[in-house]
Amino acid sequence: MVTLMQLSQHFYTVRQNNRKKPYRPGSIVNVSAMSFGSISAAAIEALNKGVKKANAYHNTGEGGLSRYHKHGGDIIFHFGTGYFGVRTEDGNFSMEKMKKLVEDNPCIKAIEIKLSQGTKPGKGDALTALQHKVNGHKEVLMHLYNLIVWRNTLIRLEKNF
Fold first, then answer.
1. What's the CA gap between 76 and 111, in Å, rounded?
2. What gap in Å lies between CA 10 and CA 8, rounded to an integer?
3. Could you give the strand order of the β-sheet that contains 74-79, starting from the edge strand earlier in sequence?
């Protein structure tokens, strides 16, 4: 009987050997998706310079690839339902633009696709009530969010070691 772990290792080995440009991150600690629209240009540039020094990768987030992402760090190009950076004039996904983006930017080592969007405040989802209760407490929310992200990261790391 083949275990899930054996199957996963086999799949990884087979897929890695068949890729034109296999990519294996140099670090287990990397910069997760933070969109250009959510943090400053200086912050993105500093993060990218840092991942270069740490031999890590930098996920662009859904805002697309900017010049501030291109300071030597490996890039995971992230796109979601907005297709920022890879969409046609009428808003659809463009494979041609994706290919050109990757060809023109050798710093892009992998592509992450967000298949669906999460909770949308004001659209009847669970965060609406929470948003009204904590309105004006953005720092508290960001601190809680960061704690949850770190907790989940640590759990994933523990499972891998």
1. 5
2. 5
3. 57-59, 74-79, 108-113
Q: Which residues, 6 or more positions from 38, have their beta carbon under 8 angstroms from its beta carbon?
A: 61, 63
Mean of per-residue pLDDT scores for the chain: 75
Secondary structure of 15-71 as H, E, C letters? HHHHCCCCCCCCCCCCECCCCCCCCCHHHHHHHHHHHHHHCCEEECCCCCCCHHHCC
Q: Are 45 and 68 in contact (CB under 8 A)?
A: yes
Chain Cα centroid distance, residue 67 = 17
Q: Token pair for residue 10? A: 């086999």
> What are phi and psi for residue 31, nearest 5 degrees?
-100, 115
Q: What is the pTM of this model?
A: 0.62
Q: DSSP strand E in 121-160: where?
A: none
